[in-house]
# Entry
Amino acid sequence: MHSWPYLALLFNAMVWGLAWWPFQTMRAAGLAAPWATGMIYSVLALGTIVCLRGSLAQFLRHPVLWLLALSSGLTNVSFNTAASTGDVVRVILLFYLMPAWTVLLAWRFLGERPTPQSLLRLVLAFSGMALVIVPPGATWRSLTAGLGLPEYLAIFGGLCFAMTNVILRRCFHTPSMARVLAMFLGCMGMGLATATAGYLGGQFPGIPAPAPGWIACAVGMAVLVAIGSWALQYGASRIPTSTTSLIMLSEVLFASISAWLLGATELTPRMLLGGALIVGGALLAVLQHRRPH
# Structure
């Protein structure tokens, strides 16, 4: 069926749009997001190495994949920690400044000069960010009053996600499963490193005693992320990149609606307008790539 690739991408967007709930559930049970991230991706990385025996050798043969591992790991740990500790909708919207960061990074590292359309996307995205995070009536001295650690992590995670996309474009010649393994290893390593450093510094608790609740969430997320990763590879290889980007935006809807229904966020008019500007900037990127050259 021709609809399967679209459904696969929609499933992947749903997984990450709803990921905030299991991570918040695990945090409530005493398992901090970096520990959870490290555990989940340890299972995925080891499973990939065992099932695809050539993937580790391919990963080791391409040094550029270490950069991919680093950027992917920073992206995942930042997003999961932000989503488990902050306002879900604010986190998702700030994370989706990613297309704006991509314009700047592609200019610096790929030599792609910004076009008038890409500059418009920057204006829309950062105007939306201001509406989402700056309190009404804020002065220049209080511009950061609405920012907490989750917001900073969401913005940083979006920047790292943009860097991941730039690196993927630079290492397109590498085997696809080596790239997937690099991402899994990066998320595993960065998750465990962040959790260990946070624990030693007194910022995170240790791993809690085994309990059915958080173990079920961790195993469930590992299964869903594995299926979602396969779905992304399956769908993205069969439909245009611009369409893939458009479907990815449904993650914002899944996260916003689920968080609102479960009482995890309050959708104010200011946040809705800011979100519309951020999503509008991302949509412009999709439409620009769809336009025939």
Observations:
- The mean pLDDT is 85.
- The radius of gyration is 19 Å.
